[in-house]
Design goal:
Elements (H helix, E strand, L loop, with lengths): L11 H10 L5 H33 L1 H14 L17
Helix pairs in contact: 2-3
Length: 91
């Protein structure tokens, strides 16, 4: 596994507590594990939100209609004829 060095700044009190609790040669692994756990939890939370939104879109006709309306307007005016992009008009 390759690694990448990242500079982080911690409040002095937190850094002192880290140094007191975790031996010097174990700090990188300790911090990497904390970050990996936090990122996985964050990803899980985002996946739950996405699943909930998808469920609502499928089961709430009013929301589904609103989503279709928004999707129709997102690309409105961005495409020219036959799927080619319209050229910007000179001012």
């Amino acid at each position: 596994m390759s690694t990448q060095q990242i500079l982080i700044r911690l409040p002095e009190e937190v850094a002192d507590r880290l140094k007191a609790a975790i031996p010097a040669r174990q700090r990188n692994r300790f911090i990497a594990d904390l970050v990996a756990t936090a990122v996985a939890r964050h990803d899980d939370d985002l996946a739950k939100v996405a699943a909930a939104v998808t469920y609502e879109e499928k089961h709430d006709p009013r929301l589904a209609r609103e989503v279709r309306d928004w999707e129709a307007t997102v690309s409105d005016g961005l495409e020219g004829r036959r799927g080619t992009r319209a050229k910007p008009q000179a001012r």
